[in-house]
Amino acid sequence: MSYSTRDRTANQPQSIHEPPYVEVDGLLFYKEAGKQPEFLDAAFATILFGERVVIDHLVMLFSSSVDLTQYANNLIQYGAKTIEGPGIWPQDFCPGFTAFPADLTMYLLSVLMPSGGILVLAAPHASSDQLDRLLQERGLNTVHHVALRTNDINATAEVWQSKGFVPLSVAPQDDGCLCQWSLKNSAGQIIELIHRRCVKGATFSCQNIAALRLTEKT
User: Fold this and answer.
1) Helix, strand or coil for residue 10?
2) How far separated are the first and last CA of the chain, in Å rounded?
3) For the whole model, what pTM was predicted?
4) Are 104 and 215 in contact (CB under 8 A)?
5) By C-alpha distance, which of 56, 28, 83 is closest to 153?
6) Cα atoms found within 13 Å of the Cα of residue 155, Cβ hemisphere only
7) 3-class DSSP assignment, residue 15
8) pLDDT higher than 60, residue 158
9) CB–CB of 56/117 below 8 Å?
10) Burial of 95 (C-beta count, 10 Å sphere; 0-12/13-18/19+)
């Protein structure tokens, strides 16, 4: 079962809110209103493909680092706090990844919203790299992926597999603190399952993200 309001205790009520995205033929796209800080901040307990979920983080794409920075400044004025970046991934985050495919490089910044949800902002690092191609194909409102909190990643994966999502790796990526697993449906929409044991705020570790990004390579 996915980590949702059904997993919360009576002492931790969680209201369900309207999602910031719409589903079109298996793909997710942000609503224009859904990009407003006030709307996003309330939408981390919501509905995803008919399932009540608690979203750990949402990923939003931008065409350039300039546009990304402008949007991030609006979030910070709203009360968000920067927790990762800004910088070029992996160079500025995981400098040991000297042989990592340049096609998967990206400009990255993530913020912690006042509600406790995380918004990851990413932009292409070079023309025609993976993120740039995705934007050309699906547009600026495309939802790169949604990460769902879970206390049992294997049981949650079974729920999403029953909805047609296929794991992108044989097993989750697990560094001992963060356990993460990406799944994709036939339309190409990615969701991530994340079990946090001892890491608050960070959306990745260098150990986990290298493998996760490589499973996305097209």
Assistant:
1) coil
2) 30
3) 0.90
4) no
5) 56
6) 10
7) coil
8) yes
9) yes
10) exposed
> What are the start-end ranges of the H helices in 94-163?
130-138, 153-162
E-assigned strand segments in the chain: 21-24, 27-30, 45-48, 51-61, 81-89, 106-112, 118-124, 143-149, 166-167, 173-174, 178-184, 190-196
For residue 165 the two structure tokens come to: 């999502």
Dig out the tokens for 8 from the structure. Answer: 């919360």
Tokens 């400044």, located at residue: 73
73 with 66: CB under 8 angstroms? no
Looking at residue 217, its pLDDT comes to: 61
Phi, psi of 110 (to 5 degrees): -130, 150
Q: List, for residues 90-139, the tens digit of each pLDDT value.
A: 999 988 877 788 899 999 999 999 999 999 999 999 999 999 999 999 99
Contacts of 170 (CB under 8 A, 6+ apart): none
Q: Using the CB atoms, write b or e for 23-57: b if 16+ within 10 Å.
A: beeeebbbeeebbebebbbbbbbbbbbebbbbbbb
| Cβ atoms of residues 111 and 119 within 8 Å | yes
Long-range contacts of 165-174 (CB under 8 A, 24+ apart): 165/191, 168/215, 168/216, 169/211, 169/212, 169/215, 173/207, 173/208, 173/211, 173/212, 174/208
